[in-house]
């Protein structure tokens, strides 16, 4: 009537929350499926037909089928990725249980080796949504005289939201994924919850750092592929505590395979090798307390320019371990060209690694950053809306009219009160669109027909403007020569709409710049576009 879960002392390490959560979830599924009630009915059948070996056989088979059904329901919740961890928990727990044969009064609670083997076989073959009651289970139902011993599986009974600690490492639903306006390789956020949504999976973060260490102002989400991202968090000693030589602690979280983890942890930049650099890596097992992981040493050799012709070597060491489906990395030692940036003791490494918690469970560290700095990037509609609120006007966000010309970045300067979009072609910047409420050059062009340009050394030059009609709007155009000695010219277009001033400039460099046709297409698109909200984008 008032069911309880009993866990024999010594059978489980209570510090292993993942193993503990599997066991609790399994028992909760039994409760939701009303298996206690149906088990009672099977006992009544045995009491009545104690002399019939078929009933005893049926009850034993039903016990196995009931456990398999419960395992399948749990795996429906956890997902196929956790079948190995769940199966190993079952094996380890059952192995300990089988050693209790010297306690006869406890025998009723535990299974035989063959029953455990049957459950493990089911788990190894499990596919999400594919579980069906076996023919043997149906035969058992007939043999017990129509008693319904096992009710149907209902995954809805215990959903992922009911057991957040168990399912927190799973990937997030497609509804939570963000539609990016600018899908940069590396994105920076000042909000950990937003970074988690963008990363696309739930993760843990440290709840311990050496004295004086605080999270820096942003969290980085970097793309591994179109489907996978990883998170980077850096902790700095802002208070320069005495007797602590550490300047920076780097922590990374991955939801991908180990090969990709190692590649990104070491940060093997192809350009580094093209420039004559060399990287050597080595691995060895590393166990810290109850955490089994790997120590990775990376040696970076850069052709020296100042060290008497000798290669300058930098060395980084990382502790990499896995927890609830995610990979975690902690750079615990780093020397860059003779300067030590981090040097953690094994005790400190273990404290940090064992302290990781889901963000909502963190109690000791503060992950609330001071907020966005004066200049920051725009990636999605929410960022755009926040930027519009900060500057007080609606933005244009015109995409390129040419497949070779792409938006590489969008950014806000709260200090200078403008919104900018950068266009690239072949990875080179070919145009910039600035939007602001106060642009003196536009007023000068409208009133005098000239624009004053500040050159190198503070010299001022006046440039005559040309009045154009583009997309039904009056646009002032002027050109000036860039001070790079190559004869390249900058073409600038300025205009105003609804109290907002716009400036679009483009280089005429033959190497990276836009052709006349490309420039005309892009400027017509930019001038003719409406604000983001009005365009329905």
UniProtKB/TrEMBL annotation:
Residues 1-123 form the Peptidase M56 domain. The keyword Transmembrane applies. CDD domains: M56_BlaR1_MecR1_like (cd07341). The keyword Glycosyltransferase does not apply. The chain crosses the membrane at residues 36-57, 129-150. It holds the Pfam family Peptidase_M56. Keywords: Membrane, Transmembrane, Transmembrane helix. InterPro entries: Beta-lactam_resp_regulator (IPR052173), Peptidase_M56 (IPR008756). This is M56 family metallopeptidase. It comes from Clostridium autoethanogenum DSM 10061.
């Amino acid at each position: 009537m008032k069911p309880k879960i009993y866990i024999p002392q010594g059978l489980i390490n209570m510090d292993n929350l993942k193993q503990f959560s599997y066991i609790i979830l399994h028992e909760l599924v039994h409760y939701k499926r009303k298996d206690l009630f149906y088990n009672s009915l099977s006992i009544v059948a045995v009491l009545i037909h104690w002399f019939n070996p078929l009933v005893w056989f049926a009850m034993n088979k039903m016990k196995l089928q009931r456990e398999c059904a419960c395992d399948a329901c749990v795996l429906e919740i956890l997902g196929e990725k956790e079948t190995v961890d769940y199966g190993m928990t079952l094996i380890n727990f059952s192995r300990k249980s089988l050693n209790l044969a010297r306690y006869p009064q406890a025998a009723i609670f535990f299974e035989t080796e063959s029953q455990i083997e049957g459950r493990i076989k089911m788990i190894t073959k499990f596919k999400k949504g594919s579980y069906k009651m076996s023919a043997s289970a149906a035969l058992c139902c007939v043999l017990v005289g129509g008693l319904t011993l096992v009710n149907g599986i209902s995954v809805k009974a215990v959903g992922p939201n009911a057991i957040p600690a168990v399912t927190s490492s799973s990937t997030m639903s497609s509804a939570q994924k963000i539609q990016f306006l600018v899908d940069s390789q590396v994105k920076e956020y000042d909000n950990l919850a937003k970074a988690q949504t963008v990363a696309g999976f739930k993760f843990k973060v440290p709840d311990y750092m050496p004295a004086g260490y605080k999270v820096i102002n942003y969290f980085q989400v970097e793309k591994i592929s179109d489907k996978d991202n990883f998170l980077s968090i850096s902790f700095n000693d802002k208070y320069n505590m005495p007797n602590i030589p550490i300047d920076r602690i780097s922590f990374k979280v991955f939801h991908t395979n180990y090969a990709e983890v190692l590649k990104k942890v070491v940060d093997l930049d192809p350009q580094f090798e093209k420039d004559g650099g060399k990287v050597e890596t080595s691995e060895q097992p590393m166990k810290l307390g109850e955490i089994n992981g790997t120590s990775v040493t990376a040696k970076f050799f850069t052709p020296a320019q100042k060290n008497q012709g000798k290669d300058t070597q930098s060395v980084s060491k990382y502790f990499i371990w896995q927890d609830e489906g995610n990979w975690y990395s902690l750079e615990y030692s780093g020397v860059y060209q003779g300067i030590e940036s981090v040097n953690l003791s094994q005790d400190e490494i273990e404290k940090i690694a064992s302290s990781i918690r889901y963000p909502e469970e963190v109690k000791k560290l503060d992950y609330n950053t001071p907020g966005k700095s004066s200049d920051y990037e725009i990636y999605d509609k929410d960022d755009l809306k926040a930027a519009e609120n900060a500057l007080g006007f609606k933005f244009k966000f015109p995409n390129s009219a040419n497949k070779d010309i792409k938006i590489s970045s969008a950014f806000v300067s709260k200090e200078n009160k403008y919104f900018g979009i950068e266009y690239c072609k072949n990875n080179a910047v070919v145009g910039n669109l600035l939007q602001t409420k106060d642009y003196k050059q536009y007023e000068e062009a409208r009133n005098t027909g000239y624009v004053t340009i500040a050159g190198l050394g503070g010299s001022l030059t006046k440039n005559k403007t040309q009045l154009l009609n583009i997309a039904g709007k009056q646009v002032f155009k002027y050109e000036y020569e860039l001070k790079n000695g190559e004869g390249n010219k900058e073409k600038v277009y300025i205009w105003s709409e609804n109290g907002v001033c716009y400036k679009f400039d483009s280089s005429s460099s033959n190497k990276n710049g836009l052709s006349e046709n490309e420039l005309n297409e892009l400027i017509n698109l930019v001038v003719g576009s409406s604000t983001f909200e009005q365009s329905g984008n």
